[in-house]
Amino acid sequence: MIKRNVTLNGVNKIVVADPEASLADVVRGQLGLTGTKIGCGTGQCGSCSVIMDGKLIKSCMTKMKRVQEGANILTIEGIGTPDNLHALQLSWTVHGGAQCGFCSPGFIVSAKALLDENLNPTREQVRDWFQKNRNACRCTGYKPLVDAVMDAAKVLRGEITAAELAFQLPADGRIWGTNYPRPSAVAKVTGTTDYGADLICKMPPGTLHLALVQAKVSHAKILSIDTAEAEKMPGVAKIVTHKDVKGKNRITGLITFPTNKGDGWDRPILCDEKVFQFGDAIAIVCADTEANAKAAAEKVNVLLEELPAYMSAPAAMADDAIEIHPGTPNIYYEQKRAKGQDTKPLMESAAYVVEGEYYLQRQPHLTMEPDVGFAYFDEESRLTIHSKSIGIHLHHAMICAGLGTEPEKLRLVQNPAGGTFGYKFSPTMEALVGVAAIATGKPVALKYDYYQHITYTGKRSPFFIKLKYGADKDGKIVAMEGDWIVDHGPYSEFGDLLTLRGAQFIGAGYGIPNIRGLGQTVCTNHAWGSAFRAYGSPQSFLASECLMDELAEKMGKDPLELRYLNVYRPGDTSPTGQAPEVYSFPEMIDKLRPLYQEALKKAKMESTPEKKKGVGISIGVYGCGLDGPDSSEVTVELIPNGVKLISAWEDHGQGADMGALGTCHEALRPLAITPDKIQLVMNDTAITPNSGPSGGSRQQVMTGNAIKNGCEMLINAMRKSDGSYRTYDEMVAENIPLKYSGKWTASMCTPCDENAQGSPFAVYMYGVFMAEVAVDTKTGKTQVEKFTIVADIGKINNRLVVDGQIYGGIAQGIGLALSEDFEDLKKHTSLINCGLPFAKDIPDNIDIIYVESPREHGPFGAAGVGELPLTSPHAAVANAIYNATGVRIRSLPALPEKVLAGLK
Ligand code: MCN
Ligand code: FES
Ligand code: FES
Question: How far apart are CA 819 and CA 838, in angstroms?
């Protein structure tokens, strides 16, 4: 042990610590300052940034032995507090810098170090600083963070006051459509939000810490599991294996379609007979400390017989491939698409025919917060599981039978989440902490390190797509044909639904009358397929939007004008045969056209043989909801000092709190209450009704409508005959109920049939994307210099939130286009190796143009937004690379070596 006298946030402290411990662990665990977050834990993300003796450092990489006697340490807690925000913290809230907020303390500390050095930086200097110091954010696309630093610097220089920077409530008190900062922003920017790992630091004594024994191969038969040696290790309370699981020991994938050849019960909680993928959990060590649990996990002996591992769909589809789940064929689901006439004769007679083959990679989510959860028995003896779940009621149904718990004895709670982007549409560790709590009867906690987080959570499923368009002499597409293969990894959950997404979105946006094709879902031994923002559509649009450019080229037509000719117009229907609810594309393209023409001119002017510049276009569409008559429920209750809104609008970081507050405030406008009078109660199956998962960009529409419905009922009950409203006391005195259940069902929707025909969603989001790129012809490296999106997401609830959603989604699209992948289990195991974009990889120049067509079925005209910006920005980038260089990249990511090979 070492002793140090340090000054921590201006206060003298004596610290006694293990010299090998990290400063991050000591600050968080021993000193209780959990504002400093641990993301990657390996110096790549900056979540743990602190300032020591005037220098910005990564506390996860700083061992206590390197902390000098008398060191002066500044953490986020020393920068400002919720009632005394530093200008940077205020600016972060005003610019929407904290979405999930997990990166915010690290960024703010980093920005403080920059402004201490240079109080008048340029935007480029701010970007350089974040790049150099490796401050990573997965939510915001960086631009709002640069905006925040620039405005904070103005306050610190005395050019504007903090009051001038702060959000001003409009005179009419209405917050709908404004930049009202989300309610959780202040806690996020001050480091006072407790995420899962912070809550674990604050669990009661006696909590057991868990470590997993995981498979290091991708496919094997389990011959034996020997825990004897591990049980004797220090601090071990129990080693849990499949034998300890009381229930079915399976997580059900809740198969969506009866034609699925599997039954959905294919994912073990703890492996019993087989290992299906790298990282599969085989046993759980429960011990007094995390270190003891991890040491003991090393001593569990698992004897395996390795089986051939099928690491991609074609390998698992080969004739000689064995069944990964014996009894279920590796191709376990097929989805036909058939609209209009047979396409064969139409292709033969078409004036123009183009075809191409495309592959979209296994995109990793790369949230800043690694997966985390804990479990205990509550005061009603309910097994209570806290996690990052963005579908608490859904996950309840998926894990209950596997655990062997009575449904009413299982409770799921969502912790504040540091981003999920859909990976938490799947249960991850919920059932693991659940079985450990049942087996030990104690509170238990489990944190994945970043390696586990990458290798043992779901990924975007790769699609292999063959696509063909037949067009008439003017370029109007008359027929589309094509098959797609979905590599869904070993677990079937939602694999059939994802395959259907191909049928819904390949070619979406265009009124193509005749379509044929077949999608196949394939079981493999690579990472299991989980949801990822825009689920199934980036795969679909890579094919249909790049092929559109190929058609334009073949015809000698401008790609934007060819799109203009083909986009939905009255009388057209979508690939599923549904009439669009609005026809905004022509107006959207009209808005983009002058900018596009200008961009083309600029690219031509600035292009040199060393740096070739180009412009690419794509369109994107996505549905808001789960297929068919999706529904949501909330409770609205009048309380003495306002209104309580109880919902399970789970928060990934997108802004569920703001969404709920903004919608509720708008619905309650007749009561003229201020936003602070609306109390939000969220995300606990014991308290909140089933609002459905935060997937499919559904909550603003589904839960938004349910909130509106509940508020209307309350207002009706409060209304007096003279048109004024009863007070709380008057309601109580007259014995009028105070609590109303708001519900909404998309009853106008029908799920798709066996030909993928139907009206699956009531509301869609529409986007037109334009990427401007420069390709270095020596290295093959592509830089996106500017990005423009025209978005129709209906009426906007919160402008700050939707701007943030769009910036962040586009940044993920640029990563998808150029760098991100999870293929090589040895290489793709860190943020940098997985290709996470840092500040300088994303343009500072991102323009958003809104077309707000009101939606009949959206609350106050709103559609969703979350997934729109990741539907097809990558296709615009791929098209721009072609425009710049003539190199057509059909398999992403467009790594420099691929582009270079094309150039040669
Ligand atoms: N909104 C609005 N006006 C509109 C539409 C939406 O102000 N016209 C706001 C909503 O109030 C909400 C946000 O935009 O705060 C997103 O709303 P919506 O599109 O309905 O999506 P959900 O709330 O259902 O969120 C899920 C969606 C999905 S599916 C993924 S994946 C996702 C996403 O949102 N993951 C995210 N955004 C994310 N953002 C962050 N920072 N982190 C993630 O993991
Ligand atoms: Fe320290 Fe990522 S750099 S947690
Ligand atoms: Fe930066 Fe979520 S706000 S990672």
Answer: 11
